[in-house]
Amino acid sequence: MTAPLWTGKQIIEATSGDCAQTDWICNGVNIDNRVVEKDDLFIAIKGPNNDGHDYVKAALEAGASAALVSHVPEGVDKDKLVLVEDTQTAMEKLGEAARNRTDARIIAVTGSVGKTGTKEALAHLLSRQGKTHYSIGSFNNHWGVPLSLCRMPLESEYGIFELGMNHAGELGPLSKMVRPDVAIITIIAPAHMEFFESTDDVARAKAEIFEGVKENGVVLLNADDSHFPLLKGLAETRGDLEIRYFGENDLAHIRLNNAQLMPESSIIDATIFGQNHHFTIPLAGRHWVQNALAVLGGIALIGGDTGKACADFADLAAPSGRGALIDLESPSGRYVVIDESYNASPVAMEAAFKVLAGKKVEGMGRKIAVLGDMRELGEKSPEIHRNLAAGLLASGVDLVYASGPNMQHLYDALPLPKKASFADKSDALVGPLKQEVRADDIVLIKGSLGSNMKVILNGLVGQSDMLRKQSEGRA
Ligand SMILES: Nc1ncnc2c1ncn2[C@@H]1O[C@H](COP(=O)(O)OP(=O)(O)OP(=O)(O)O)[C@@H](O)[C@H]1O
Ligand SMILES: [Mg+2]
After folding, report:
1. Residue 253 vs residues 45, 225, 256: alpha-carbon distances, Å
2. Is 361 a member of any domain?
3. What is the pTM (predicted TM-score) of this model?
4. What is the mean pLDDT of residues 3-13?
5. Residue of the nearest CA to atom 28 in ligand 1?
6. Distance (Å) from CA 276 to ligand 2 centroid
7. Measuring CA to CA, which of 3, 338, 350, 383 is 20 to 30 A from 376?
8. Where are the alpha helices (DSSP H) in 127-227?
9. 150 and 257 together in one domain
């Protein structure tokens, strides 16, 4: 039997909390009562819209063994509460306790794009080499990072954490909580720009990740990124860090010799700390090649087996909403959706257009792009949207559907024959698109999470399920 994640006593001690009962354990930690499972610790966090204290009762009813609170909510049994002054601070303290007690080798990943993809690939590959704990989804902010730490089992051998920010001053404290052995910066690009004047400022804020790296730890940088000299200089100021790079650059420690980009995969020839590796990643696009180099660098730097990792890339799947290919049914036959509905920024859009460019349509199929607003781009947003036109047209797109006030600027810049439909909100595109799709189409769906492009995917999946059921009924 494995040890519990936390005993009541350990939680009380780590958080300096007050609880009458100590003879309980928990095997998970949650701050959202809707996903609480039996034996979880529920932490009542006060957010901008909701106060977790209103959900303590529901969390305990759902099976939580205890709740961390800063006051006793009405109608809740006090015996199951750990009373602390401030629940956010208590969660951070519990996270620190998890970090202090572990012998796991820790990697922290930041960057403007590619954090989750890199983190998920590291998790996929390292799980084959040892007990691996990793942040779920994009849990990368002031609550996501400590929560992910609190969830790290004692016996973990590897820990992988995603660190994100949209203001200067946010990443340093997160990195100090995680205290990584290795910090990776994927790439600096115009994403999450609302509170920054330039990408150099973004780079400086991302460089705060160096603050928490363990003494004599390692920083892994992208040598092909134009912000590389700036980041390298900032890393050097700490004095004790090893600085390693990945990329096409001749000096890179993880060097790309050749990448053969194919419609659904890439064959990579790379030299990793002097050793040659030849392997395939089953994901399309130059951006995934770049992320794969960062991943292999991370694995090498924490003492993992890069040869095994290269082989294990074979069954890596794209994280949901970030390039996954979905086969769907239209009234006239099968077509494919490239599901990029989770996220969008200018570099991510360009990366997706290149993937679309690399696809070949069969028969009467067409390339269709369904695009929603890229959020958090600040006042230059209309111009940035408009500037996507050249890359989009170079993809060989036949029809464009667009939604959102910013995407309208791109839509307006397109030649008439490419314009299929524009709507203020994404849901209005579902009907027209369902009418339009046909056999052999390739449909790229992309927009920021807040643009709700998922509703379009769901509409197409619903239509496809219905058509499949109908054809099964007829069979
Ligand atoms: N190295 C890269 N270069 C350019 N674009 C990339 C790269 N990696 C991923 N992308 C694009 O960025 C999108 C988001 O990827 P991912 O979710 O991994 O980023 P993230 O940094 O975790 O984003 P978030 O800030 O929302 O957490 C992907 O769908 C893909 O289009
Ligand atoms: Mg992410």
Report:
1. 43, 15, 9
2. yes
3. 0.94
4. 96
5. 322
6. 30
7. 338
8. 144-150, 171-178, 199-206
9. yes
